[in-house]
SF4 helicase domain-containing protein
Amino acid sequence: MDFRDAMLSIKARIDIEDTSLPISLPRFNEFLGGISDEEMYLLFGATGTSKTKLAIKLFVLDLLNQYLENPDNDFHVIYATLELSATEIYYNIFCNALHRQTGNNYSIKFFKNKIQDDPLTNDRYEEFKLIMPWLKKLDKKVTIIDHIKQPSKLYQYIRWKLNNEWGTVDETSNKYVKHNPRKKIIIITDTINALQKDTEDADEYTSIKRWSNYYCKQLLKMFYKCSIINIQQSDKQSTTVQYTGKGERIEDKFIPRVENLSTVKTTPDDHTTVISIYNPSRYGVSECEGYKVGPLGNHFRYLNVLKNSHGDENKGVGIYIDNAHLEAVELPRPDQIDNLCGTLSLLGIDYLSRPGGFGF
């Protein structure tokens, strides 16, 4: 390869009008430049930060709805869920789709028939007819799997899909050629901590490291030009309360840092973008990067871009999140918020009328 090949790749993007897929959080989208081919994104945080729900919202639901409005934004997601069953992932999706269609409240507990004063009934089941056309479109664009746990087997499955459904390897150039050059292939692994040891590896550490460095970076990203989204857990020690010699709690300890990643701490080196997600209310922290957390409580999250190979780093946004229905709305900058409830109302969030109605 020489400079001419690199120039041709630019010309090809111009010819097919290839652009990144937008993220539904405006300032955050500006930081990242959308979701692009040949990129790796690492989303990490502690337990209880809504990593899975946010991934489903931003990289499954929003992308599908954008595609339905503009079919040029073609994509396919392979969502490998390693900690939750595929059924539970679909329950989350049902909550969002049914809530948008009916305005009623839903939760995982509801679909598991665990709410005594609101049991499952055939009448409620009939509501699925309202979203069935949308679900059939989802089925064509999103593949959710929960039966593959080892990195080598997961890669083999993805490679088969790439070579048999979305493109082929040109034998002359030894390059992967997609049937639709504009289609983005997005691989989500949730979470990589739960990957199991490959037979030839000594331990899980080696297998997870190989997944990130070899299968994702060298093969899926560099050869197949996929967009990779890996979700990783922070270690439990980083969320343990500590105090100063004066007995004051150290609140900065809870802020997500790459050195606190669980199992394998070198994964950020493989990724072009590293994003932390922080839930300050979980630790009783009242302020985060200028945002007053108290009024929103467990509905507040802070997303921070800790690494960005193509842009600014240490850029963050506060978001309002409804975990039950997978709604996420970017909040204005703290200095632009005079009245929080009024701001939420302008964003289309009737916060006061829904206290406790989110199924946490």
DSSP finds ten helices and 13 strands in the chain. The longest strand covers residues 300-308.
